[in-house]
Amino acid sequence: MRYLLFLSFLLFSSCTYNEIEPPTDTISPTDTVFIDTCITEPNFQTCIVEIIQNNCIGCHDDYDEYNILIDKIENRDLLNRVKTDMPPQTQGLGNYQIEILENWISNGYKNN
Question: Would you say residue 17 lies in a domain?
Fold first, then answer.
C-alpha cells in the first residue's frame, strides 16, 4: 500500500504546466507604428538592422554590416533563402519582416 501511495505521489507531483510560447509573428500595438513605417519606407539603420539582429546574428555575426549584407543579396540569393528556410531554428521570419526586406531591396537597398 505504501508503495502504491508513493508512486501516486511521484506521478502527481512530477506533472507540470508548460506555457505555450506565443508566435514570433505576434505584434504588440506599440510595434505597429514601427512596422508600418518600415514597410512603407524601409531603411537599413532602423528597420533592416533590427530584423538582422533579432533573427540572424548568432549564426551570421557579420550580417549587420551593410556591405556584407549587400553581397549576400546580390550574389547569394539571400531573400529567397529567408523566404524558404532561414532562420532554421525557428519558423522563419514573419510575413511583415519579409515584406520589409522585399521593399528595402526593391527600393535599391539604400544605406540610410
Answer: no
pTM comes to 0.67
Q: What is the pLDDT of residues 26-64, one digit of tens each?
A: 444 457 777 888 888 898 988 898 888 888 887 887 777
Nearby residues of 67 by Cβ (< 8 Å), 6 or more positions away: none
- How high is the pLDDT of residue 24? 47
Question: What is the domain count for the chain?
Answer: 1
In a domain, 41, yes or no: yes
Full domain range(s) for residue 81: 28-106
Helices (H), 1-112: 2-13, 29-40, 49-55, 66-76, 78-84, 95-106
> Prior bond to 87 cis, omega within 30?
yes
Residue type, 40: T
